[in-house]
Design a protein that fits this description.
8 helices, alpha/beta, 36% helix, Glutathione S-transferase Yfyf (Class Pi), Chain A, domain 2, 2 domains, six-stranded mixed sheet, single chain, globular, Rossmann fold
Length: 370
């Protein structure tokens, strides 16, 4: 999958920008605050979800703009295929509502995943393995979405049913038992579908990782675990989930939340070479495992979907030693597809094998470079 054109209007610090790129590596360099990460965030919004910063839509509007922003891209999955036009943004009259268009026609945000898959690694993700289970679940769901675009629909419907059930449980005297059972049936259906997709994605990713060496990037062993930290050996069954939710109504009402189910699962990662859990590894080891995971998942998506995802790697090169940096560039160039990388200095990208599209970013202005 290749973004052959990207246009931004009033997005973050970019009043207007129009970029053309080819497959291969795309290097963005410039000072801190120039707007490099903003470009990656714009690309991340061409996929379902809230983007790599998970920011409010209104926060993405350029200061001083009329109130809306627009992102437009042309994406192709092969040299012989016509580009697909993807657009998203918000209008001044509807700042809280995201607008999506595919080839000019209005569409749901979830349908973007049918046309493009985007994976990213940012400095904020360096602490993924020591942060909350919720952050790791979102990370897993992003990996799943790149393989199964329907995953977002199941997730949205599951969350909606979860909220509705919570409101009923908060007022037992007014709770309609039949409606409660109906909501729990929806939770079971979509929860089982979500979990099955997670299990399939992690199994495929684990198989990809198993074939990789432990160097130059650390190889993680991944497991899905429940809220008690026990390994999940089999997918959730729909009937078993319905029974689980029904049996925990009183517990969940007292807790003010659903205390068990797919929304409580977590990702466990272990350093394959040392056997240490990721949370106990050094910061450098954790970053190396994340990088290995993202690269392996890119291979996984290419194998299963027939098109490699767009990779967004924010400030990755600056935190690697020269040996690992060269290995990363060789790996990215060798696997094909398109990868966007940011850095503060042009020299960070001197060793990149071609083809490379280079841009200098300064004060919200984007200039092609050589």
């Amino acid at each position: 999958m290749t973004l052959v054109r990207l246009s931004l209007t009033d997005f973050r610090n970019h009043a207007g920008a129009d970029m053309a790129a080819t497959s291969g590596l795309v290097a963005l360099y410039g000072d801190n605050g120039a707007g490099k990460t903003n470009i990656l965030e714009a690309i991340s919004l061409l996929a379902p979800g809230r983007g790599l910063r998970r920011a409010a839509l209104s926060d993405m509007v350029r200061d001083g703009a009329s109130g809306g922003f627009a992102i437009f891209a042309e994406v192709t999955s092969g040299p012989d295929l016509a580009p697909v036009a993807l657009g998203t943004g918000i209008e001044p009259a509807h700042l809280g509502r995201r607008i999506v268009r595919i080839n000019g026609a209005s569409a749901a945000a979830a349908s973007l995943g049918e046309w493009v898959a985007v994976l990213w690694l940012t400095p904020a993700m360096d602490r993924l393995f020591v942060e909350t289970a919720g952050n790791r679940r979102r990370f897993v769901d992003r990996l799943v979405l790149a393989l199964d675009p329907r995953h977002a629909q199941h997730g949205n419907r599951y969350e909606a049913a979860l909220r509705a059930r919570g409101k009923l449980l908060a007022d037992p005297a007014q709770a309609d038992q039949q409606w409660l059972a109906s909501l729990e049936a929806q939770l079971a259906e979509h929860g089982a579908a979500m979990d099955a997709a997670r299990q399939r994605a992690l199994a495929a990713l684990s198989a990809e990782l198993a074939g990789l060496p432990d160097a130059p990037f650390a190889r993680p062993i991944l497991t899905l675990v429940n809220s008690e930290g026990a390994a999940r050996d089999a997918p959730y069954d729909v009937d078993a989930l319905k029974e689980l939710f029904a049996a925990r109504r009183r517990i969940d009402a007292a807790a003010g939340r659903a205390t068990a189910g797919p929304h409580r699962d977590d990702l466990s990662a272990v350093h394959a070479a040392t056997g240490r859990t990721a949370a106990r590894c050094s910061t450098g080891e954790q970053k190396a495992m994340l990088l290995s995971l993202i690269l392996a998942h890119s291979d996984c998506v290419a194998r299963l979907r027939g098109a490699r995802p767009v990779l967004l790697l924010d400030e990755v090169a600056a935190h690697l030693d020269p040996t690992r940096r060269d290995a990363l560039y060789e790996r990215l160039a060798g696997q094909g597809g398109q990868a966007w990388l940011t850095g503060t200095e042009a020299a960070l990208f001197d060793a990149m094998p071609g083809p490379v599209t280079r841009f200098q970013v300064a004060g919200g202005r984007i200039s092609p470079s050589v």
